[in-house]
Design goal:
heterotrimer; A mainly alpha; B mainly alpha; C alpha+beta; A: mainly alpha; 15 helices; 0% strand; flat; B: MetI-like fold; globular; disordered C terminus
Chain lengths: 315, 277, 453
């Protein structure tokens, strides 16, 4: 392929000399400036669009702004104390934690498993990836309509069908105990295809000569995975682990579309809780406070995990 | 690559994939089937096959969802988001993967924090700025905002792809006299092109289906994206499910086409020495 | 094979090409000749409703004058879009909002125009039902006009009632007896549910507040004279929980049914009753119509009063939405003209002919001949006429979504905590009381019209 052509074009020298050169060459400040310039666009764009408004919103958490008026007054930690005194907040928080545990296990496992299986099927893999991505590609409202009205419906949908056959299938969204899991199931079903695509792309970048070497040494499937593939995709796995943790505390769409936080708050999550304050009860200060808490909860496990694996991240 | 895999493993693997494919496809089939039925029939029995092939829903969806202008706007928005993200994230990913600046842990920490910010809560200040800059209704501006929101994930992903590139490659090129620009353009970017494609696909999908930011910042129906046009047919209390299903099919059609067509640009695992066909 | 640089070039050029035409596409919005534009944002709506809106409202208004050109945008999340827009002094000329309770904060922040002058010019005060008109005022000035009446009652399937030998229920005992009878036979006592839209709970909070706690008590609570924890209100909340648990509200499928599903089940004879808002007429047309030959099967009657201490019949007074004028609009006069156009009998008639249930303009007197209408539109017109009579006589209660301040209204959506048994009625009402007191202090309670005392 053309990569070897590139290699042939750019260098005949053995790599060792290059390594040697790099380690003894002085690091000029001018040389580093260009790297700042390279990273600047991403950083500046993110800072201006995300950080500045985020800080302003964070400040709002300490005020009584109602989301409409041109002014508000500082109330310190009042929003936080009323939120912590509200039982619904703790229900929502517990639900987010359950959500995180669910997403860190099930879709990760399925996504990785499917990616491994597709790795060895070069011809069918485009078709399979496309199919697995369909739930991710469909708009959330479409998926919600399908699951609410067709899958979960005890009257006309699959559950209804089972009931007509005499099987007393429970209606997943009606039961206070199962509602959250029913909603999470829909979101997980929509999400794991995305993970498959990411993991597969990463797996396909595993150096071919490592794989060949392992084959020559007679490595079994499990050993191949453990010693060749896994180390290669570990950064990606870690990245997705952190991302999923953070996303779990931001999850919103499917809860809002499927149950709106009900029945009786059993599917309430922090984002629906915040959204109600922002847009239904004119208490934007409280919404911002919940938002800060969401960020914190997403960030803490993420930082902890990153710090614990920092030595791996150096790799 | 099939050496070392027993037939049983092969069949079991196929079975698993087929089951997974079925779970992914079943709802799509339901959407397709129900897109051909009138609303009352869908409500009565969503699992039944249509009694006749009636494309009235598609015509209604196309007209009332304003898919004509919608697709143009969607392509502009998605295209902007993808181009901006790929441009910025690839450069940043390169810098962070190679730890080229001493502040790299701080930058990574910043991006990590940026991911945790809940979007719906920072709309107000952003909207205010948009209004002042007369950018309300500007699809390109919204594309840039979406790129900014997805920047952290993209930067991190690109970084993981750059991490796999051994230093020798870059050094060999540098020794040869190439400057950083050439190193990036001729050596590194082609190697991480699978990463560019993956990130491009992901951000493209996110931008295509995006409705929160778009709905807030896009005004005037001539500026609605296809997704917004689709959603405008969904009332709180009243929805024509047949039309919505047809609209859903129309909405994903371009995505499917583009996804399939970019797959052939996907370069296989790179080679660090040997020649491979 | 092409090298990578060139391969990416083509799509890149394509995007760049699009970017160059983008400014043109973005700014080019064809404007109608020399007319000034007026904008209004509405909820998302299915194609037939969009067609009716276009025909009756947009085309009708544009044809009736030649200064302005009205344009309606359909938006799935119109409420939050409007809030964000108004906060930044942007937004449409005509603000279509969720009702009087949402007007107060906007009015207080000067985002809406005081419409008193227009009211005088067009004679709205004389035309609109008094309690409705009052509810749109803030500090005595008119800021919003609720544009459509919505009340709660009983839709019934005549064929099913005939089959079980029951008459149209006139008392709560009749109603419950019929529901028990059909329940024993495996039918739904009534069909309804909040699938996909949790605020449907408001209907079943309101109906018992009106018909059991009574207008006087609720009026006292809403004006701060009576606590929300009073025994009459607690009894009403407990009765609603009792109904829910007995399956009188959608059997055990309340969370799995929405209004469309319910109407379909009602039409199919799976239940005799759908107890709910008159805006449900919108869904009825899909399942009770000429093609299916069952138009005459659907009837509507008011909900019976519970107990002997209250007047009868009573009507829960509610509106579906309200119309206001954006303070930052450059065409305020035009906006007022549109509102006037929408608050007329002609508008009621033209919209209701094809879209019954959502456009019951709250006029003091409507002179409509029901026989001019067919099928469901006729039933709807009769329902609205009856309601107007009742309201003029002062026999009305309060829809939580219309008259309760925002956070209190949200608390009543959480009434399902009592229904599901995760909270007691008294704890629930204690919470309501605390929430209400805060809002009362902050002047967030809309003007509450007094019932006949």
């Amino acid at each position: 392929m053309s990569i070897t052509t590139e290699l042939g074009r750019t260098g005949h020298q053995p790599p060792i000399a290059a390594l040697y050169n790099r380690h003894i060459a002085p690091r000029a400040r001018g040389a580093r400036l260009k790297y700042y310039i390279l990273v600047a666009p991403a950083l500046l764009l993110s800072l201006s669009v995300v950080l500045v408004p985020a800080v302003l919103t964070a400040v709002a958490a300490f005020t009584d702004w109602n989301g409409v008026a041109a002014s508000a007054s500082w109330i310190g930690l009042d929003n936080f104390s009323s939120i912590f005194a509200d039982g619904v907040f703790w229900t929502a928080l517990a639900n987010n934690i359950r959500w995180m545990v669910l997403f860190l296990t099930i879709p990760m496992a399925i996504g990785l498993g499917a990616a491994m299986l597709l790795l060895r099927r070069p011809r069918s893999r485009t078709g399979y990836q496309l199919i697995f991505l369909i739930p991710y590609v469909l708009a959330a409202i479409t998926n919600a309509l399908v699951w609410l009205n067709i899958m979960y419906s005890p009257i006309a949908g699959l559950v209804g069908f089972l009931r007509k056959q005499g099987i007393n299938a429970p209606a997943p969204l009606a039961n206070l105990q199962t509602a959250l899991y029913a909603v999470a199931a829909v979101d997980m079903w929509h999400f794991w295809g995305f993970l498959t695509v990411v993991y597969l792309a990463s797996l396909r970048q595993t150096p071919v000569d490592h794989i060949e070497a392992a084959h020559i040494e007679g490595a079994s499937g499990m050993q191949l995975f453990r010693y060749v593939y896994f180390p290669s995709i570990r950064p990606t796995l870690q990245l997705m682990f952190v991302m999923i943790t953070i996303f779990s505390f931001l999850s919103y769409d499917y809860v809002k579309l499927l149950t709106g936080g009900g029945p009786a708050h059993s599917t309430e999550v922090l984002s629906t809780y915040a959204y109600t304050f922002a847009f239904s009860t004119f208490q934007f200060g409280k919404a911002a406070a919940v938002g800060l808490i969401m960020s914190l909860f997403g960030l803490l496990p993420a930082i902890l995990y990153t710090w614990l694996s920092r030595r791996d991240l150096q790799a | 690559m099939s050496a070392g895999r027993s037939p049983i493993q092969s069949v079991a693997g196929h079975l698993v994939l087929l089951v997974l494919a079925a779970t992914a496809l079943l709802p799509l089939t339901l959407v397709a089937v129900n897109s051909l039925k009138p609303h009352s029939e869908v409500v009565r029995n969503p699992l039944a096959l249509p009694t006749s092939l009636n494309f009235a829903n598609y015509r209604a969806a196309w007209d009332f969802g304003h898919f004509g202008t919608g697709f143009t706007n969607s392509f502009m928005l998605t295209g902007t988001a993808v181009v901006v993200v790929l441009g910025c994230a690839s450069l940043a990913g390169y810098v962070l993967a190679g730890k080229k600046i001493p502040a790299w842990p701080a930058v990574m920490l910043y991006f990590l924090i940026a991911v945790t910010v809940p979007i719906q809560l920072f709309l107000f200040p952003l909207y205010f700025a948009f209004a002042m800059l007369h950018l309300l209704g500007n699809v390109i501006a919204v594309g840039v905002v979406i790129a900014a929101i997805n920047m952290p994930l993209s930067v991190f992903l690109m970084r993981t792809f750059f991490l796999k590139v051994p230093n020798e490659l870059e050094d060999a090129a540098l020794v040869d006299g190439a400057n950083t620009y050439h190193v990036l353009r001729d050596v590194l970017l082609p190697i991480v092109s699978p990463g560019l494609l993956t990130v491009g696909v992901i951000v493209g999908l996110i931008a295509w289906n995006e409705f929160l930011i778009s709905s807030t910042f896009l005004q005037g129906e001539g500026h609605f994206t296809a997704t917004l046009g689709f959603l405008s047919m969904n009332g709180t209390f009243s929805t024509n499910q047949g039309v919505m299903m047809a609209g859903a099919m129309i909405l994903i059609a371009p995505v499917v086409v583009i996804f399939v067509s970019v797959q052939r640009y996907f370069v296989e695992g790179f080679v660090s020495g040997a020649v491979k066909g | 094979m092409l090298d990578h640089g060139r391969r990416f070039l083509t799509p890149l050029l394509l995007v760049l090409g699009l970017l160059t035409i983008a400014p043109a596409a973005v700014t080019a919005a064809p404007t109608a000749a020399s007319r000034q534009p007026l904008s209004m944002w509405f909820w998302g709506a299915p194609p037939d409703h969009q067609m009716t809106m276009k025909r009756v409202l947009v085309d009708g208004f544009n044809a009736s004058q030649d200064t302005y050109a009205l344009q309606v945008e359909f938006r799935n999340s119109v409420d939050s879009d409007i809030q964000v827009a108004l906060a930044a002094n942007q937004g449409p000329d005509i603000v279509y909002g969720s009702g009087p309770a949402f007007v107060a904060p906007y009015a207080a922040s000067s985002k809406l125009v005081s419409m008193d002058a227009y009211s005088q010019k067009y004679g709205w005060k004389d035309r609109i039902l008094d309690p409705i008109y009052q509810s749109g005022t803030v500090g005595g000035k008119l800021y919003a006009l609720p544009n459509s009446l919505n009340t709660l009652g009983i839709f019934y399937n005549k064929a099913v009632l005939r089959k079980y030998g029951s008459d149209v229920p006139k008392t709560i005992e009749d109603l419950e007896a019929t529901m028990d009878k059909v329940k024993a036979d495996g039918l739904y006592p009534s069909v309804t549910g909040n699938k996909g839209w949790r605020p449907v709970n408001e209907n079943y909070a309101s109906i018992f507040l009106t018909h059991m706690a009574g207008p006087q008590t609720v009026y006292g609570a809403l004006t701060g004279k009576v606590p929300w924890t009073s025994p009459e209100i607690q009894a009403a909340v407990e009765k609603s929980a009792d109904w829910y648990q007995k399956g009188y509200l959608g059997g055990s499928d309340y969370v799995n049914l929405n209004f469309a599903d319910s109407m379909q089940l009602l039409a199919d004879g799976k239940s005799p009753f759908f107890i709910g808002p008159t805006l449900a007429f919108q869904f009825a047309t899909d399942f009770f119509n000429k093609d299916k030959g069952n138009v005459d099967d659907l009837g509507y009657t008011s909900f019976p009063t519970i107990g002997t201490g209250l007047a009868s019949p009573l009507y829960t007074l509610g509106t579906t939405a309200s119309l206001s004028i954006n303070a930052n609009s450059s065409n305020q006069d035009g906006a007022a003209q549109v509102i006037d156009y929408m608050m007329s009998q002609m508008f009621l008639e033209n919209m209701t002919a094809t879209w019954p249930g959502y456009w019951g303009v709250p006029l003091k007197s409507i002179d409509i001949d029901p026989s001019k209408y067919e099928g469901l539109s006729r039933e709807y017109v009769i329902a609205i006429s009856d309601m107007i009579k009742g309201v003029n006589g002062g026999n009305f209660g309060y829809f939580t979504a219309t008259f309760f301040p925002p956070a209190t209204q949200q608390e009543f959506i959480n009434i399902d905590t009592v229904w599901e048994g995760t909270s007691s009625a008294s704890d629930f009402l204690t919470r309501v009381d605390q929430t209400f007191k805060v809002e009362l202090e902050k002047n967030m309670v809309p003007p509450i019209p007094a019932p006949k005392l």
